Amino acid sequence: MSRSNEPPEGAGSPDDGLAAALADTVRGTGASSGGLYLIEDAEPVLRLVALCGLPLAFSAPWERLPLSAPVPVADAIREDGLVWIESQAEMARRYPRAAAAMPYPFALAAAPVTGVRRRWGGLVLMWPAGHPRRIAPRERGHITSSARRMARLLDDAPRPPALPDQPRIVAADAAPHPVQSGLAAADYLERLPEGAVALDLEGRITFATATAARLLGAHADRLVGTRPWHSLPWLDSPVYEDHYRAAVVSRAPVTFSALRPPDQWLTFQLHPDSSGISVRVVPGGEPGGDPPPPAALSPRAAPAGRLYQLVHLAAALTEAVTVRDLVALIADQILPAFGAQGLVLSAADAGRLKITGYHGYPADVMERLDALALDTDLTPAGRVIASGIPAFFAHPGEMKAGYPQASDISGKQAWAFLPLIISGRPVGCCVLSYEQPHAFTAEERAILTSLSGLIAQALDRARLYDAKHRLVRELQRALLPRALPRLAGLEVAARYLPAGHGIEVGGDFFDLLRLNDTTAAAVIGDVEGHSVAAAALMGQVRTAIHAHATAGAAPDEVLARTNRLLADLDSELLVSCLYAHLDLARHRASLASAGHVPPLLRPTGSPAGVLDVEPGPLLGIATEADYPVTTVPLRPGTTLALYTDGLVELPGTDVTRTTAALAAHLDAARHQDLEELIDRLVRHATPTGRHTDDIAVLLLRAGSAPDGQS
Length: 710
Hints:
CATH topology of the largest domain: Phosphatase 2c, domain 1
Helix content: 25-40%
CATH class of the largest domain: Alpha Beta
Radius of gyration: 33 Å
Distance between the termini: 74 Å
CATH architecture of the largest domain: 4-Layer Sandwich
Number of domains: 4
Largest sheet: 7 strands, mixed
Strand content: 25-35%
């Protein structure tokens, strides 16, 4: 980790303390590997700052994760409790995206690192596949105490630690093993009839006997320090690299066969532990199937780690719903995976490149590049879209050769322009940029090209969703009152919040009708379901209530006549509704309910509570239905709160308790401005900002009688 915050002389570094705590936890719990995540203050993401027992290359998909990511460590932090995954099968069931990037047998635990005043991050531990399905109380206690130890170190530090660019690798061994005669050990292995090879956790060969070198067809000096899939072309396949990764992650023995051209089959037995992998190489053995095709054996074949990273990113792209989600996902996961710092996502629209999102650029640069013609010579984006061929520029000199102004505009030093094409149809262009020159390897070019097709599909879906979402919201606004009338002696505030997901229009509605100088009608209701049909019926119900109310009908008659209209319309949807006739001169309110949630009333000088309004049936159930009228005083200072069930019917909560809490909030803000009060009520009901149903709220507060009437 970073060394920017050095402690006073004689004190241990907080970074060293965290690293030691992680190593102690891995040893004390018998885990095979572990990692420490800290929350980045600048934005709600997790950064992997220390890694123990796994190679750095394995951490690429996991080094930077959104706090909202569907992974165990994020859930542990959000829920402030330990998350236990007993097997890879359970990981696939609960976290399918994470399982796709780590398809190996293991058990996993994630725990929050929570300090006195803040959440610092999370701790992740992994065990070999043979771990019991249940976590032992001793292990649970050790993990919890270790997380507390790390939190204390962070709490006591003079300032939060600087987060590193990549995780610090921590050794799990407390002390080296007793020294033995290396010469004697080598002589022993050389006398065996089979070959012996040692790999470190990074996959590099650290030792090879002469027999192993002969079987592998290469001199031992040429093998040591290399990875087998790099130095032996016939092992250069993701299939074989994946066996090594499986051994490192699961800490379980792995056996496989491979064909050394032209006809020599070899059996490899991998025996891993925390220090590396011992490999036994034996001639012969039953082949596990045909050897990988020549294309897979090409030196250009992508390593298994990159392939799993691609799977991980592909799965993440399927979860992006809006264009904003997509931009955030690329910025949080794809840019770090390829070491890039900047992003521009453009959509092809009517012959122009419309910038739909960006990251790592100042706004004025984006304003200059927005809405450029597709045939522009200012950047390569138009040419890339037209040809469908990606363009890579390793340094400004390459860019200036064809586009002299591009590098000066952005100030970046390297670029990857990826065409976003679906079935021959151009969708847009994705640009990844670098703050330093960057040589794009063949592997990076291949994976980025593959990724561009996935980004194209995600962008196309997201734009379609956003277009439908805008249409739904515009329809919703058109069906609700644009402004509420002003009446002397009555304060009013209203809010409407659409459901937190989906693109269907809701059926919640409210209205305030001015009947004359001293009377008004307040209405709130909810049409069953979320659909265009529900929205259309909501508009018809509002119109009917408005017509009957302004004609002078009493509250019960307003609902009864509207109910008969719904029967004539033969609608399959039901409607709940609460109608309140407000007599500001006589200081009283008369209410009738068609199965709607009861309102809250806070009388002057009395606590707030639920107003007991005798309900009639929902509108649309019975043609001839009666709607009892309840009359209550409406003295100056009295507040009446009308709302739909989305405000109190929350998943996993009791409606009675939620309603009582809402009444308490209404009572606590007795003299608060209505606009501030309604915001407070909504925030109380939706503390996370998420809600599964529409919410409509109408607050009414009686003032002095208009024109001095009593």
